[in-house]
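=== Structure Prediction Worksheet ===
Name of assembly: unnamed complex
Input type: mixed (protein and possibly other molecules)
Chain count: two
Listed entries:
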Amino acid sequence: MIFLKRQFPLAICFVVGIAMALQYYVPSTWSQKLGSQMSDWYIVISIFAAFLGFGSVAHLHYRKVSLKAHGWGYSALVFVGLVLMLIVGFASGGKQSTERLPDEQGENGTPEVTKGPDGKPTKQIERVFRPIPDQEEETDEMELAITTPPVPLPPEKDPKKFKVLEVEIDYAADGKVTKAVERKYDRKGNVLATREREIDKDGALVPYEGTPTSFEWVFRNVLFPLQSTMFALLGFYIASAAFRSFRAKSFEAGLLLVTALIVLIGNVPFTNHLWAEGLGIHHAHGIRMEMPDIVAWLMGTPNTAARRGVGFGVALGIIATSLKIIFGIERGYLGGGD
Amino acid sequence: MENFCRRILALDRRWIFFILLATLIFPIACPLNLEGLKPSTGVKKMYDFIEAMPEGQSVLISFDYDPSSAPELQPMADAVMRHAFRKKLKVVVVGLWVTGVPLQKSTVEKITKEAGAKEGEDYTHLGFKPGNVAVISGMGEDIYATFPTDAKGTATSTIPVMKKLRRLKDFDLVVSISAGTPGLDTWIAYGADKYKFKIGGGATAVQSPVMSPYLQAGQLVGLIPAMRGAAEYEFLIDKPGAGTKGMDAISLGHYLIIALILLGNVAYFYTRTKPAGGVA
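=== Predicted Assembly ===
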């Protein structure tokens, strides 16, 4: 068991770490294929990590609820949110709005028009042939081979390669639409969905914008305001914190304060207007001295120089830590225990 | 005076919250249209790059933010997309943040409707894919494999606008509107540097200074910093939007914070040498 818990993960980490580091610098086809393959693996593993995260969150909050720890009510709310979002997500099929058949991508077929004795159309069927992605086609190939597809497709179109979306419109004698039904077929010709289209008072089809799903509703009315509020609160706390802690208690603090005030005030466009138009300051000793120029210098020279230094430091730190992980020196990610 | 200064120093933070709220609401309710907006270097570079792109060239716009940063970043996403359609560029939209997907969708719908752009021919919305760095690497190798379908399920390889866009380097410009990681820096490190394509973007006020070395080094063709950058971009494309509207509130908010800092320091220095509770 110790092999599976220690040596095996270390070996995987070493091999993959070295392979990916080399892959980045080798421009050959097989190297690119390897990189692409590993990227797919990464996506698959990250999906498993999502389940792991779900389990971890559930476990943590379950313990808090079961022990009635401080703030356990919030933990109970976590479960309410989790379950509600799962229900809403599955019920909506992960979609934000119902599909808009007339706007679907695909090739428009020639409309089938049935005319009355007076030559005016009484019925029209419009079809959109939507290409099926290659991957889907391969998946269902066996099933399709044993099915005679009654799909309303023109004979020249391979039913394995297209989905059909159809709108059947009935017209009155005066040319107004009396009824319009949309149908969505699967590749075997089975009707997947039927929906009646809305008709306005003038007898024309109401442009279909798609109906927002419950998933979209939750996003718009719960997640969006909650996240925006949380972020907006930061502004208030920053204002309060700046008032309380931004004091020139030492020379360094004073320097920081003056610089911050210049950047703050210079980032307000109206200050630029007052500076240039009100005070008439444009140049000093032949150097452009408009407020944006001063701010640009502060941000572009001392600030960027410091940023570069921090950036190099962080990058070197990441390289060192990565090497320690690849060579098995840093083993914290394996967890504790035997 | 001393008592006043001590009361200022002990000011309840709820008063600050209230004053700030009033300061922000006022210009939103009654726009002041403060003057002085002048495009900064990064914004001008970004605008000039897109402006110089010939009709029919392609731009990939990555929405790397979620609702928490939307008030700051949405105006620039709108402005860049408007500019791209005005220049009749082919636009492809993706996103690396799962909670940002509905924002992508609503932005694409709003701007394309406004521009009269045709889905599939002028633009496509590929949607979201989990994997952060892996998505960028995958797109660098083969977009059709990374995004087999667009957000509506149409095979990517069959979409007219995607016909000649197989890899990231096939794009004439990639734009990341970024609130953090994965975002603009991820696109630079794992995309532009390796697969050699032009990249520009927009970032939050917090992230913009981190991005400035990339702009100076020429790794970014342009950088739109925060709401101010969005307002500057709106000014350049002559289409005032949410960025311009928000600038009055941001300006007054900045002035208030400056005033509070100065007030706090005056009170601090005035009371520093005097013992607490003592009367001169």
